[in-house]
Amino acid sequence: MATDFTERTVEYDKLLADFKTLLKEKALKFTNQREKILETLYYSQEHLTPEALHQLIKEKYPELNAGIATIYRTLSMLEDNNIVSSLSFGAQGKKYELGAKDHHDHMICTKCGEITEFVDEVIETQQHKIADEHGFKMQDHSMQIYGICKTCQEQQ
Amino acid sequence: MATDFTERTVEYDKLLADFKTLLKEKALKFTNQREKILETLYYSQEHLTPEALHQLIKEKYPELNAGIATIYRTLSMLEDNNIVSSLSFGAQGKKYELGAKDHHDHMICTKCGEITEFVDEVIETQQHKIADEHGFKMQDHSMQIYGICKTCQEQQ
DNA sequence: TTAGATAATGAGAGTGTTTATCAAGCCTTA
DNA sequence: TAAGGCTTGATAAACACTCTCATTATCTAA
């Protein structure tokens, strides 16, 4: 446990340092709001909507008085710089997660909304192959599997 | 050509008949608006936004005076009954298409917004395999490849 | 350390999309 | 054909997100 926490802290410190470097490169400023947004995204295990992220930050740092516009602005900026990635979720808007991890896809439970991540090499390579066959210059991809998760199946 | 048209008409007639049956089963009514929406979706080769669908119907059937609310309501109903499926398109909203066709995935050009459909057996089977491995009861899935299409690459 | 330049912020107005409300109208079927 | 109840169009409202702008905070160079 102690080890996990330490590793986690070290990993976050690296993320933060990289973030600062990026800001400097682009002549952007390192603000309290940006720091707390990155931190909250990092320590949250979930995929967050801008609204949910806003709530979390208001609860933990009420004195920051962070506005929702700043959340949106920062998430956009983080996404443009490939630090976070977003997942479109039908009409319910977007959810964001730190994207510094390895690429992965999502399995979404249509009952409880839980999102499970997975990585599959066969699919990764196949996607590149398909894009190539169509003369398509692939930039990104996303795949979602919708269904009922194990827990929800058992509850019936 | 004549053959194509005939086949197409026959196929649409079947779709329409099935739709009527569904409505009857659910004690819903067969209205002019619902018919024109289904028809327009069927004869359109494109993935349509609710707004675009509304425009098409206003142009072709001005006397219907169809309201945008009806378009949304009908698309929802059709989607709930697996007659159409929608494709979330980031911040730009949703696009709808008839879902009675074979399953397929999408390749989306981030420059011009063009959507190309494709079917890939390797991916289809792999998806089932992944869901099984996670004890997930798969209901549906969607995959999008984002990138620059051939035409847009050539224009640069 | 300080001051000036300028990026970033919060509040709130604005925008575009989707949904809810409700009175009037249309479909079904008896 | 007439009644009942589902549908509709118009419009208000909810929602997600973006823009504007005056004020505040950050960075840097002296």
From the structure above, extract its key features:
DNA-binding; two-stranded antiparallel ribbon; Dna Ligase, domain 1; 156 residues; alpha+beta; 2 domains; 6 helices; homodimer; three-stranded mixed sheet; Arc Repressor Mutant, subunit A
Task: Explain what the structure shows.
The structure is a homodimer of 156-residue chains. The mean pLDDT of chain A is 86. Chain A has six helices and five strands; from the N terminus they run H-H-H-H-E-E-E-E-H-E-H. Chain A has a three-stranded mixed β-sheet. Chain A has a two-stranded antiparallel ribbon with strand order 1-2. Chain A is of the alpha+beta class. The two termini of chain A are 35 Å apart. Chain A has two domains: 1-100, Winged helix-like DNA-binding domain superfamily/Winged helix DNA-binding domain (Arc Repressor Mutant, subunit A, Orthogonal Bundle), CATH 1.10.10; 102-156, 2-Layer Sandwich (Dna Ligase, domain 1), CATH 3.30.1490. In chain A, helix 3 packs across helix 4 (68-80). At the A-B interface, helix 5 and strand 5 of A face helix 5 and strand 5 of B. Chain B binds a DNA duplex (30 and 30 nucleotides) through residues 27-34, 49-51, 65-70, 72-73, 76, 91, 93-94.
